[in-house]
Amino acid sequence: MDTLVNVLYIIAFSLFIYGLMGLTGPRTAVRGNWIAAVGMGIAVAATLLAVRDTGNWILIVAGLVVGVVLGVPPAIRTKMTEMPQLVAFFNGVGGGTVALIAWAEFLDTDGFTNFHGYEGPVVHIIVGSLFAAIVGSVSFWGSLVAFAKLQELLNKNLEKKLVANVKTFQVANIILALASLVIAIYIGINADPANDPTAAIWILALLVIAGTMGLFVVLPIGGADMPVVISLLNALTGLSAASAGLALNNTAMIVAGMIVGASGSILTNLMAKAMNRSIPAIIFGSFGGSTSAAAVDDAGGTVKSTSASDAAIQMAYANQVIVVPGYGLAVAQAQHAVKELADLLEEKGVEVKFAIHPVAGRMPGHMNVLLAEAEVSYDAMKEMDDINGEFNRTDVTIVIGANDVTNPAARNDPSSPIHGMPILNVDQSRSVIVLKRGMSSGYAGIENPLFFADQTSMLFGDAKKSVSHVIEELKAL
């Protein structure tokens, strides 16, 4: 049986890695996801085969049923606009599960004093469990805050106050981190429920303090940094799972956790580079939620509005049109209308491309997923580095709810909070049409000079309705 379990684990790990390779490109992403899912199914089956105490089968089956009942419906019903929230929530559940496993291991070993006949070294069990308890708690509570921010459950004024007091949270987190470390060392060395009635309280204190640290880490982080935060929390959940797997001597958890931790760390680093900021700068000095000190229109800029008919005429006689999607496109569920618009323009001989910024939307790849859902050609989706050289040759650029990733202040204004962040060079286009409900700022909470530029006109209203009106005008031409 042990040989069979190991063979199944090897097959599962191979499928994990092969499936992950598929996620590197949009054409193979769905297939890669299915392959990895099959691998996880095999890993679960192998783990069930390895269970020696059949008395736990009722609990195991009950856990599987509860997981399916609670997990599948949200995954099916969640709209694409809410996918970042679902990712954050599921990631948090993973971290919370790891923290509970660490707690259960503490109880099962009588405070790391009774390993039920195990004669090998136990340091990896103790260290792995305590690391999993801390990091899993941080990931769980931090992910819940990320979910609340993405779901807009927090009051906007409260969010601004939290971001403004980031230094206070930094000091508190240092204290909490030191307290967690001290308690973990005490538990690992001295905790003995047989002789110390308070031992069980210490492990609970560790979980609570680490959870509070998770709250305090994410609460003051602004919305502009949230895609990076989601990726970082995902990496932490993976590392905590691997650590718990080390404590339990579970190969599946170790390998799967390390794959998630490594891939999440790489993605976090790539996202941070896309914003030209270090990960510590994001965690300890986030921006977002506050307004710029000076309004852009104070410099003399004027906002010009346009109509659907004028926008249609501009696009119909253009040689090249670039569409820049942002979260506004997701909110309005305008991806299908945008696809129809692109098809109409291409029928008229206009070349249409889609410019994708790495941190557009609320999670990595958010815009790619939305456009793929509307069957936009993968070849038409261009990454920032590939498309930026095209803007100065573009007749019309359509910006749909993308604020910060098109803000030229990141390039031109050293005093701007987003200065140095790579952006899409939309301001170099001959004409820019921005689709927005109003003049509200983006995640970073700062004005966008692009909206006041001479070549820019604003088409106000719901993005889906605005695009539909443009489509009607194009058909009438």
Number of helical segments with 4 or more residues:
18
Distance between the termini: 72 Å
Net shape: elongated
> What radius of gyration results from the CA coordinates?
25 Å
Strand content: 5-15%
Low-pLDDT sequence parts? 287-300
Provide the succession of SSEs: HHHHHHHHHHHHEHHEHEHEHEEH
pLDDT averaged over residues: 85
What class, by secondary structure content?
Answer: alpha/beta
Q: How many distinct domains?
A: 3
Outline of this structure?
By secondary structure, this protein is α/β, with parallel strands linked by helices.
Can you tell me about this structure?
Belongs to the PNT beta subunit family. It is found in: Cell inner membrane. This protein is α/β, with parallel strands linked by helices and 477 residues long. It is built from 18 helices and 6 strands. The protein folds into 3 domains: 77 residues; 203 residues, no CATH class; 181 residues, TPP-binding domain (Rossmann fold), CATH 3.40.50. Helix 14 packs parallel to helix 18. About 3% of the residues have low confidence.
Short descriptors:
3 domains, 18 helices, alpha/beta, 6-stranded parallel β-sheet, Rossmann fold, elongated, 477 residues
